[in-house]
Amino acid sequence: MAPFFELMHVAHIPVWCAERVWLALLLTAGAWGVIRLAEALGIGKQWARVLGALAYCVAPLVVDWAAVSAALVAIVFLPWVLQPLVVGSKTGSPRRAAAKSGVAIALMGGVNATIILTALPLAVIWLLTRQPGHAVSL
Length: 138
What we know:
Layout: H1 2-10, H2 15-41, H3 46-57, H4 60-65, H5 69-90, H6 94-107, H7 113-128
């Protein structure tokens, strides 16, 4: 967050405007992540994926945590934690999928470890429910 707000400060963007741009970027990243996750899972048509992404962004948890963007970052990056694991379980390298997922976890930030720990069980459940062995191309 700091580099973004420093850039806004250097560009002489008012703080209230920078905060809204930051929130819009977070919600856009979250919606895009939901769309990509739905594509990886093969869920619905494109319009249904977009509708699901909008529903994700207006969920009560997201709306409530929008006031504290440090907490919102974990929710925004949750689809990005799962998406590489879903793709990696079908094709590609499991190590590369785990590394991409790890980058998303790192991007969740270090403000509140409890929030990140509450987001990780979905990834763990996904990994535990996959068949062991090499990924098979469908």
